[in-house]
Amino acid sequence: MRTTLNIDDDVLEKASRLTGIKEKTALVRLGLEALIARESGKRLAKLGGTEKDLRPIPRRRPVKYGSG
């Protein structure tokens, strides 16, 4: 999909220097993928520990006691 964007030249230059990527499309794609990954991680972290009444989930293998 073709889209016209107005991006600060200094921001593009800094991103290009940091990543070594010269192609503007690749820089924007990488930036969007990084944003998606970061926000997905935040959403996942918010879910952690919210189910107080959850029963313990059974293990696939029984726990072995002792090492002998």
Polypeptide structure, described:
The mean pLDDT is 88. 51% of the residues lie in helices and 0% in strands. It has helices at 9-19, 24-47. The radius of gyration is 22 Å and the shape is elongated. It has a domain at 9-47. The protein contains 2 helices and no strands. The protein starts with 8 loop residues before the first helix and ends in a 21-residue tail after the last helix. It is mostly helical and 68 residues long.
Quick take:
The protein is an all-alpha fold.
What features would you highlight for this structure?
68 residues
Low-confidence stretches: none
Number of strands: 0
SSE pattern: HH
Cα-based radius of gyration, to the nearest Å? 22 Å
Label the overall shape: elongated
The computed structural class is mainly alpha
Strand content: under 5%
**Quick one: biggest sheet?**
none
Span between N and C termini? 63 Å
Helical proportion, percent range: 40-55%
Mean pLDDT: 88
User: What is the helix tally?
Assistant: 2
Per-chain topology:
Elements: H1 9-19, H2 24-47
